[in-house]
Amino acid sequence: AGVAPATVLMGNALANLFVADVVSNIHSFIVIATNHAGDDLYRFEKGPPRVNSGTFYMRAVTSSANFPTGGDANDFMHGWLNYQIEHHVWPNLSMLSYQKAAPEMRAICEKHGVPYVQENVFKRLGSLTDIMIGKTSMRLYDPAWEKEDDFVIAK
Questions:
Q1: In the 8-state DSSP scheme, what is residue 39?
Q2: What's the distance, Cα to Cα, between the start and end of the chain in Å?
Q3: Which of 2, 22, 60, 62 registers the highest number of CB atoms within 10 A of its CB?
Q4: Residue 48 CB: number of other CB atoms within 10 A?
């Protein structure tokens, strides 16, 4: 008397679901969290600014990092999440347009002296780990760089 085939099938299906869930969560964490943490990115003390304000755009660029970009295969493997800066600046832009927008965004940042951070996933993972273990911390965004009019004042 062995185990019923339906029981084996159900066990295999549940094991596959569990492994797929774990792997996809690890992948998501590595791809998303590493683009938003590091000692080369900024954190903010003040609440969010108005969308489309100068402060909004500065925060979008200085609190995000890109992985290497370009090429359909590379971008597909990253799920187009390697364009975090462009995604934060232009949230309504289609992911296929990020390849065209990235060089323009980099040029705008260079022109105005705004840091445009782009590193491979392993360097970003190292930066994230340093933050998590307390070895380093994110930069504090200087409130002098923000305009008071860029914020919604709750009454």
A1: T
A2: 73
A3: 62
A4: 12
Q: Which residues contact 85 (CB under 8 A, 6 or more apart)?
A: 60, 61, 64, 65, 66, 102, 105, 116, 117
**CA 112 centroid distance within chain:** 22
Residue 38: CB atoms within 10 Å: 25
Read off the tokens for 43: 């954190």
**H-assigned helices in the chain:** 5-33, 54-62, 72-77, 84-89, 98-112, 121-132
Q: What span, in angstroms and rounded, lies between the C-alpha atoms of 36 and 139? A: 12
pTM: 0.82
HSE-CB of 73 using CA atoms within 13 angstroms: 0
pLDDT, one tens digit per residue, over 42-77 is: 999 988 999 999 999 999 999 999 999 888 898 988
Q: What residue ranges in 16-130 does DSSP mark as E strands?
A: 42-43, 65-66, 117-118
Report the run of H or E that residue 108 belongs to, with start and end: helix 98-112
Structure tokens at 92: 């309504």
